Amino acid sequence: MDAAQWDERYRASAGGVWATQPPAVVREIVTPLPSGTAIDVATGDGRTALWLAERGWACTGLDFSSAGLALAAARPGGDAVEWVQADVHEWEPDAPVDLVVSCYLHLPDSAAAIARIAQWVTPGGTLVVVGHDVENIAAGGHGPSDPAILYTPEVLRGALDDRFRIARCERIVRTSADAELREGHPAAAVDSLLHAVRVR
């Protein structure tokens, strides 16, 4: 889907497309970290960026959908986040940040996109990427059905160079209790997770 299609989807939604909280695994990884600067890539209607801001992070929410960003900015706490409408292939932060989070960014060049956003992490900082795994198709979980844009742990691991230490890179199962959509979905889903720390 391009930006115009996402704009249409957000405008048709009743207050937002995505769940109000970030994925449980993102909360699990980020909660112990000291707050600092962060970028939420493909922020959509803002759930992860707002959650970070509530916890003291100076957060930028990046997305190419103006309608999604408008929903995000209108949510409680929306004025605490810097919302940026831009393409992940073109935008650059002013300086590296302590945390880069990407939830469900699916592109034809996903590995290259992950490699690019990884460069936004400062030495000592953290990268967290979660997205639909290719095995999610057979599992019947919600999400894209095109294997070309889906993740595997191997794809995520291969996106990083030796400046990163990989803490976790694996498939995880997300239950309906951790639904991606605002209205929920009944089936479990298979995701790929990458948690890495930049060491130099």
From TrEMBL:
List the CDD domains hit by this protein, alphabetically.
AdoMet_MTases (cd02440)
Query: Which molecular-function annotations from GO does this UniProt entry contain?
Result: methyltransferase activity
Keyword Cell membrane among UniProt keywords? no
Q: Does the keyword Amino-acid biosynthesis apply?
A: no
Lineage, top-rank taxon, reads: Bacteria
Q: Which Pfam families match?
A: Methyltransf_25
Full protein name: Methyltransferase domain-containing protein
In which organism is this protein found?
Answer: Microbacterium galbum
